[in-house]
């Protein structure tokens, strides 16, 4: 009688999709050794780790180096599919600048002056901020321009908005009510309400990346902390919210782990990739 063939056990999930800010990244923009160790274990088990972030490709590149990952990343809220190894965009979609200006005008007609910034498209695109705009992440590089008109000098992937008085939830709700099909409105972190191309979400980019990798929604485990991660949770088989996550994301999550400061991602992955 022939000896039975020994098959390696199938990993729990073949695609691990993680947000960065508030999820895998700590508040000081670093990864814990525990997170790096378990992600190495994930790769050794044959699964793929995919960063899915609102940050544009140029702001993700150094972080991917720290993650020791040279593969794909979904950037710009799903508007960019970035090949880190080749340092090029495999796919990108831009926000029409005239539509962006129109959307800003509609928002300001409702709430008064807002302050805007843009992420330019491309692997070397800049983040431009108009007078009065304060970067929510002071560690991220940005170039201050003289006026709002200067924001539209090159193709952009998204617009970032801040209001001097309204909360992020209030600003996002008002923006959604007046922008309509001009753009998709997302909230991706404290002080970060964004306009991106209509119909583009993190799920858009994640689906493209999964197709490129030959993987499916049922293969995918997703981690996040903000409402912009909801489409990604809807697409993936299992969504894990951080303890520090926005209530809207926790409401649709399959599971809640500890905070980004307490290795919440690592705790779940250690359980699944023991």
Would you write up a description of this structure?
The chain is built from nine helices and 14 strands. The protein has helices spanning 20-24, 33-44, 57-66, 97-111, 168-179, 202-213, 230-235, 247-252, 264-272; strands spanning 15-18, 48-52, 72-75, 80-83, 88-92, 115-120, 127-129, 143-144, 156-162, 184-189, 192-196, 220-224, 238-241, 255-256. The strands form two sheets. The protein has an eight-stranded mixed β-sheet with strand order 5-4-3-2-1-12-13-14, sandwiched between helices. Helix 8 (247-252) links the parallel strand 13 (238-241) and strand 14. Helix 4 (97-111) crosses helix 5. It is globular and about 55 Å long. Mean pLDDT is 93; it is low at 1-10.
Order of helices and strands: EHHEHEEEHEEEEHEEHEHEHEH
Strand sequence of the main sheet, in spatial order?
A: 5-4-3-2-1-12-13-14
Number of helices, where a helix is a run of at least 4 consecutive DSSP H or I residues: 9
State the end-to-end distance: 33 Å
Strand residues, percent: 15-25%
Give the overall average pLDDT.
Answer: 93
Rg over CA atoms, rounded to whole Å, is 19 Å
Amount of helix:
25-40%
Label the structural class: alpha/beta
- Unreliable residue runs: 1-10
Major sheet characteristics: 8 strands, mixed
| Strand runs, count | 14
Using the alpha-carbon principal axes, give the shape: globular
């Amino acid at each position: 009688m022939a000896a039975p063939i020994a098959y390696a056990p199938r990993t729990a999930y073949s695609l691990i999709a993680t947000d960065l800010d508030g999820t895998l990244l700590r508040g000081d923009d670093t990864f814990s050794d525990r997170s790096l160790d378990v992600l190495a274990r994930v790769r050794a088990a044959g699964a793929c780790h995919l960063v899915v972030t609102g940050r544009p490709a140029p702001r993700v590149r150094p972080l991917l180096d720290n993650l020791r990952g040279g593969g794909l990343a979904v950037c710009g809220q799903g508007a960019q599919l970035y090949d880190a190894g080749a340092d090029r965009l495999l796919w990108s979609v831009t926000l029409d600048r005239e539509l962006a200006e129109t959307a800003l005008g509609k928002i300001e007609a409702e709430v008064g002056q807002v302050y805007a910034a843009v992420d330019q498209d491309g692997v070397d695109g800049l983040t431009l901020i108009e007078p009065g705009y304060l970067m929510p992440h002071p560690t991220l590089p940005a170039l201050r321009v003289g006026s709002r008109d200067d924001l539209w000098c090159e193709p952009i992937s998204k617009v970032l908005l801040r209001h001097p008085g309204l909360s992020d939830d209030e600003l996002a709700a008002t923006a959604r009510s007046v922008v309509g099909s001009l753009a998709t409105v997302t909230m991706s972190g404290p002080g970060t309400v964004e306009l991106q191309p209509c119909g583009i979400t993190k799920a858009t980019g994640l689906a493209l990346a999964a197709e490129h990798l030959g993987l499916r929604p049922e293969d995918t485990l997703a981690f996040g902390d903000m409402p912009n991660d909801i489409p990604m949770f809807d697409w993936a088989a299992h969504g894990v919210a951080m303890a520090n996550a926005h209530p809207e994301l926790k409401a649709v999550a399959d599971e809640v782990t500890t905070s980004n400061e307490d290795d919440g991602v690592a705790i779940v992955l250690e359980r699944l990739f023991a």
